[in-house]
């Protein structure tokens, strides 16, 4: 089948409003994302635990209203917020345990996005949906399409135990938000690790994005804000009271999506297909391909010794380097010295399968971008 051409659209789909613990109404936040941050798509993801049917109706109506005005797309979503708390991360951090070694289940947080305009919200404090498995069952029962995205998986407060990963619905991971980057530990070359007050770096071992990829979770990459301050799409502060959540925080991230057109269906499908990438906030355009297969692809190249690696970046500042990550380690560093960065290289493939590759872009101003991976089986 001939692939239709796609365009790049920018969005941020992790916004909290005053319907849960954020500021500003859903409409105000979505308009801020559209008009001030100049995004093409956005979504409100209020904590389901704070919602009721009346508030959910406001979420649905506001989401639908902004989507219908045209030239801007919204997705209907909510956040399932499991409260893995201090009592969990303290021993985890102190003793260096990995999530699966704890008695307490570390389900983490999931944002759920519907493809259509209808769907219910499900909260962890409802006995009907208090585990990921029950959540998937409830979502499945509705007979409408949805995708789920875990966020800040390496957070010390709310880590994700990848043991509970669901390959059927979890197509993406939010690698970066104001919390920091969950790509890999600070010790392994992460410039923006998740921090506590005072700049301490307590990370949850085994919960990073590379851990997920290495254990076979085939997640694409997005970045967001997790903003709560009424500035939808680009938050200024995490919450109303900064000390409450033990900052410090980083600037908001955003997501670039290659979609056929700017419609809810096309954006949702492109996210489902992992045809996307995340940045630390700058509109850094990233293209990454292996033998012409784009981000998110799974390709079969069992007996081919070489692969063509294509990296194309249009930065918001000079691109310092593009690092090609192969199964968790840096395979190649391609250096740059201008905002426009284009490389096409032939590279030998190791024998092991499966392989995953993604690129991490670093600009001279410290901004970063991460492509979604491509898998070779
Ligand atoms: Zn969350
Ligand atoms: Zn959130």
TrEMBL record:
Superkingdom: Archaea
Pfam families recorded: DUF3604
Protein name (Swiss-Prot/TrEMBL): Polymerase/histidinol phosphatase N-terminal domain-containing protein
Source organism per UniProt: candidate division MSBL1 archaeon SCGC-AAA259A05
């Amino acid at each position: 089948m001939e692939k239709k051409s796609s365009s790049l659209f920018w969005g941020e789909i992790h916004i909290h409003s005053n319907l849960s613990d954020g500021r500003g109404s859903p409409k105000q936040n979505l308009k801020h994302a559209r008009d001030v941050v100049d995004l093409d798509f956005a979504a409100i993801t209020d904590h389901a635990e704070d919602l009721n049917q009346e508030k959910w109706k406001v979420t649905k109506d506001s989401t639908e209203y902004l989507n219908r005005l045209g030239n801007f797309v919204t997705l209907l979503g909510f956040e399932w917020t499991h409260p893995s708390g201090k009592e969990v991360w303290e021993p985890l951090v102190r003793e260096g345990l990995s999530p699966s070694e704890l008695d307490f289940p570390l389900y983490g947080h999931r944002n759920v996005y519907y493809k259509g305009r209808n769907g219910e919200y499900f909260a962890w404090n409802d006995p009907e949906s208090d585990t990921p498995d029950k959540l998937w069952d409830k979502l499945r029962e509705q007979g409408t399409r949805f995708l789920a995205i875990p966020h800040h998986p390496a957070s010390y407060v709310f880590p994700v135990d990848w043991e509970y990963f669901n390959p059927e619905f979890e197509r993406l991971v939010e690698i970066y938000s104001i919390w920091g980057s969950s790509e890999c530990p600070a010790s392994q070359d992460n410039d923006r690790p998740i921090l506590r007050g005072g700049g301490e770096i307590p990370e949850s071992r085994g919960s990073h994005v590379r851990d997920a990829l290495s254990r076979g979770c085939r997640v694409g990459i997005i970045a967001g804000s997790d903003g709560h301050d009424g500035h939808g799409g680009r938050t200024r502060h995490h919450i109303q009271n900064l000390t409450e959540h033990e900052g410090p925080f980083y600037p908001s991230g955003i997501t670039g999506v290659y979609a056929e057109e700017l419609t809810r269906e096309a954006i949702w499908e492109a996210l489902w297909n992992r045809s996307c990438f995340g940045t630390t906030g700058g509109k850094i355009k990233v293209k990454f391909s292996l033998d012409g297969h784009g981000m998110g692809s799974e390709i079969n190249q069992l007996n081919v010794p070489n692969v063509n690696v294509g990296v194309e970046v249009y930065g918001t500042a000079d691109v310092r380097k593009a690092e090609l990550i192969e199964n968790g380690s840096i395979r190649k560093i391609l250096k740059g010295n201008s905002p426009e960065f284009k490389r096409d290289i032939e590279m030998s493939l190791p024998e092991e399968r499966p392989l995953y590759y993604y690129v991490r872009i670093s600009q001279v101003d410290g901004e970063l971008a991460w492509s979604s991976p491509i898998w070779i089986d």
